[in-house]
Amino acid sequence: MPSPSTSLPATTPDVPALLARHASDPHALVQMLRELQAAAGWLPRTSLQQLAAGLDLSLAQVQGVADFYRFFHTRPAGDYRVLFSDNVTDRMLGSEALMADLCRRLGVVPGRLGADALVSVDRTSCTGLCDQGPALLINHHQVVTRLDAARVAQMAQLMRDRVPVTRWPSAWFAVQDNIRRADVLLGAAAAPGAALAAAQAHGPEGLLAELRLSRLRGRGGAGFATDSKWSLCRQAPGAEHVVVCNADEGEPGTFKDRVLLTRQADTVFEGMAIAAHAIGARRGFLYLRGEYRHLLESLEAVLQRRREAHLLGQSILGTAGFDFDIAIHVGAGAYVCGEESALIESLEGRRGTPRIRPPYPAQQGYLGQPTVVNNVETFCAVCQIALQGGAWWAGIGTPGSTGTKIHSVSGDCERPGLYEYPFGTRIGTILEDCGARDTQAVQVGGPSGLCLSAFEFGRRIAFEDVPTAGAFMVFNRSRDMFEVARAFAHFFAHESCGFCTPCRVGTALVVKRMDKLAAGQGSRYDIDVLFELDRLMHGTTHCGLGASACNPLRDTILRFRPAYEQRLKSLYFEPGFDLDAELSIGRRMTGRDDPLAHLEKLA
Hints:
The chain is of the alpha/beta class. Helix content is 42%, strand content 13%. The strands form three sheets. Strands 5-11-10-14-12-13 form a six-stranded mixed β-sheet.
């Protein structure tokens, strides 16, 4: 009988060889766990004990890392590990019914291994395939797009027959780029090495001056000035400087980095090399989200091609002393690792818990060394600035938001995909171009961003108006915005790293109240509690995940109040009831000096 997945054979792992391959470096623990699981199919305790001994770590330390990441299994998970993408756009396309159908055909319960130990089926957060969903991951290695009932039926039969995944229909694994509107970043790429040569001609200080002139702000959402970050890192003392590309675009509804890594990988790596030239770095990392594991081989091939062309490695472009290379670190399923300090913790082989700042990564990042962390789109923009100049870039967009922005458009529209526009473009223009009809709401920037209603479609994409990391989810008037907000609440509760009490408990309490309302058992007091949880989490959580977890809730209550009212008034509204007064955010919030103690009361 053939193995179900020839790409991930279930064998006895050779831990000593694994340790030797990574020089017994504990900072490579996450990568070693990934390779160990690829060999064994899961992470047996005996192998974890061997790994701990070889790394001079305790078993508890190794087990703690393995338990933190969603894609690691410390118990058998089956020869076929199926994870359905659970973003709200996948649900809108019928993912829940398709998953139920697959479970029925295979006789399994979601989240549990089947009795024959063949298949496990569960949900995962957004897989970055919202423009071609419903989608799923197989064995954390391959993706299946455009699921429908026929594919699910055939898939169930293939698994029952133990057909290797590599022999499934190739059309199932097709991932389209869906570039609908290209501008300077998604257009034709320059020849490899051109931007790097231009950066060298400027020199480090000259390049930083061009970045300052361009007023480029990071494209990851926070919008920090790129020249300031790079200058701070360049000036920071350290034995070495490090460049990190954050390719962990875990914000639901975002998939632009996936396409850039597919179409413009040379440009991404070139932007990293330009950063190395500017700050004096010799080492770089691309942190690739675990859901994009299917891109690993093609990215490694691009890196090797660049080494052979002397665009990476020793004496880049023949310049003595310009030595820089890039390693790819694959994540293992943790939304919080999109936060730059949590990402660095993961790079160092630990749980992805955000650090207290300051110091900032530009001062003390990877292994305590000055580290520049930027996302994929930012490094692509740097290449354009090196080639065309800072003044040219500053002439695009708005004074406070220069250049272009790539939008990942999905949901209720005729043409989902990538749309690149200059900053300052109206929300309504994007809706018109993607073929959206009868739109009631747009979620910009993912769940942690802004939810806008129809009267706001004249607003513009810009840091000074509607900032965004790139997600643009469209909802027509048939959608229940309460259910959209509830799905996002479940997402944040699932993705909380658990480090701080306000986020760990607060996100769970939000889910509890939202589920109570959904079941028709809620009251107006529950809405007051939701507002209060928002206030508490904004002021007390360790990182931005908890602080933004209530954004969809707050936006939908304020803009789509009837979606909440209809769940209350039949049982709880009395004649003359003043909803505005009841929803006053300040009510019941005085005299609370201990927010954590009050959080316990709300439970």
